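Fold these two proteins, one after the other.
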Amino acid sequence: GIDAAAGMSDPMSIGKAFLEMTARMMSNPAKIVEAQVNLWHDYMQLWQSTAQRLAGGGGEPVIAPTTEDRRFNDAAWQENQLFDFIKQSYLLSARWVQSTVRNVEGLDQKTAKKVDFYTRQFVDAMAPSNFVMTNPEVLRKTLESGGENLVKGLENLLGDLERGKGQLQIRMTDPEAFEVGKNVAVSPGKVVYQNDLIQLLQYAPTTENVAKRPLLIIPPWINKFYILDLREKNSFIKWTTDQGHTVFVVSWVNPDERLARKTFEDYMIEGPLAALEAIEKATGEKRVNVIGYCLGGTLLACALAYMATKKIDRIASATFLTTMVDFTEPGELGVFIDEEQLQALEARMSEKGYLDGSAMANTFNMLRANDLIWSFVVNNYLMGKDPFPFDLLYWNSDSTRMPYKMHSYYLRNMY
């Protein structure tokens, strides 16, 4: 449970980064004093502004949330002087903590990014919107319902703990509202080929005139294929069949310990290369158009290089959607990937033969914690509401495992 909750991160590595940051910070006491003076100055301004408002004056805000920050949308955060003070004091403290950490000199870039990332996690967790007594919307709901929201919230919390077998698995949507093949992944298709790693799905065109050349879609195996076939109105697969394409989609297996030794190369050979053979058998067409989506696109780029070397001419065109092919700047995912953390992750994976899907999901959720963690904590546990039925978040929660050998290779050789 703890492993999955930590995502791909290693707590020991995080601790070392903060120890190094603290040691560097203490070596320059003048900078600490300067930072404290700056914070004191900000608070003096806030007290003056609040005093003016309490006396009936204008009192311009010292700091305001960014336009995309939805935590403080309730009118009381602006209109009520007390909650406005709580909001502004939090934003000032958050800014101070993060800028102080960012300005520590002498840290290598990797450690600095790690410290900055986990400082933000802490700052986001401590937002006043996440607590009953400092969230005006929650307080209002508690008074109106006589505390019913908190009772319902506790039920939701216990239900999520039970579902996660002791690990908190926050419901992002109503899982009962969707069923694969019933109201998501509803495009009519059939399985035309399968092996250890894939089922190949075929979707017939809906038009009178049909394109001769088939289209192959390679989705990622970090999630399920139906991101491209959620519902009729937002199904890419339906749209392509409506344009006259015969569409083939790779549906990756959700691997368990039996597939622990499957390599990245196996994914290429048993994935796109096997699919191309199967498509030729099904249609008689040797050359196809291909779309690679996310990790499926990374695999497609590797397959194209392999096929070029082997003089295999099967791809007429290749299109990449949200695909990483240059991993020089992997963004915040790089925080989770260094030698120490990879060794810790490999040790965890070797026990089961795979990385649990929830560990990967938690890692991605941490990249946007306010949207993908804390907003649901407030909605489900403090407000006592059921999550909204949302097809995209249902798919997002339908996580898949990563086989040990493949995932280790992918992280070490790409990232």
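Now the second one:
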Amino acid sequence: MQKTAREIAEILHGWVEGDEKVVLKGLAKIEEAGPSDLTFLANPAYESHLYATNASAAIVAEGFKPTQGLPNQLSLVRVKDPYAAFTSLLQWATKKAPMAHGIHPTAAISADAQISDQCYIGAFVQIESGASVAENCEIHSHSIIGAGSQVGSGTIIQNGVYIGKESIVGSQCIVQPGAVIGSDGFGFAPQSDERYEKIPQLGNVVIGDNCEIGATTTIDRATLGSTRIGNGVKLDNQIQVAHNVTIGENTVIAAQTGIAGSTAIGSNCMIGGQVGFAGHISVADGVKVAAQSGVTKSIKEPNTTWQGTPAAPIKQYQLQQIELRKLLKNSALDRIEHLEKQVKG
């Protein structure tokens, strides 16, 4: 990147306060930025860094008012939403040209697979019978597209991804390395002799448009029907989505979360890392669940925040923690120890 502050402001629909002609060559965190870097201030907790930064320019809110003197070299690019603006700038700066269309000679593609001539197929990719890959897709090395599966237009499948038979991945998705989509669900029937018989998993996985599936995340195929991931869902790394789960549109889930079978999570939810969901429950739209919580029953109230194990409304959970600390502070053991000291007194 090599743009003047004025050019950056035009890209972000903002304006410059300071030197419009200063040349910016890089993007950096506010506490680490150096000369010719552009940074941003969105979180007030980082404001103190602004007054000591070595950056040449910073993206700030339209109404931001400095409480100290700014560095002499610093120009401000004022925008409506600094965080959104900086995100847009990162997307602009990292936008790459599409991969050259073509199929690597080591790729193994079934004769009856339908492959657009406007896509990229990398080394050692395997595309099985009846699968289809739409235009402007990228299928990177060592990935497997199972029999009868579909990959929508503009989707990027990174290295070493497995997409099981009859799975559907929508358009403009990103599937990160090592993800597994459409593996067998964890279904076993207990027998009278204490053995477990495997229950055949006959369904599939359906992923909507504009989704991102993190590295080594696993989404199991349904026993019957479909495991469904709605449009715009973002799944972090190392998440387990069990058979027949549904996740509503624009829900975001952080790493190492586990969702047991047949659970339904609503739209526009935000789930922290390492959250566990019991099976056969539902979560309403707009719910937020704090990290490391355990959701053991359905959450029916939309747009609420939950924490703890078993998860409770966050204010209730916080009150419980306060009372627990009081209880521990004034425990029976402490009282016994106090009485013993009085007796020995």
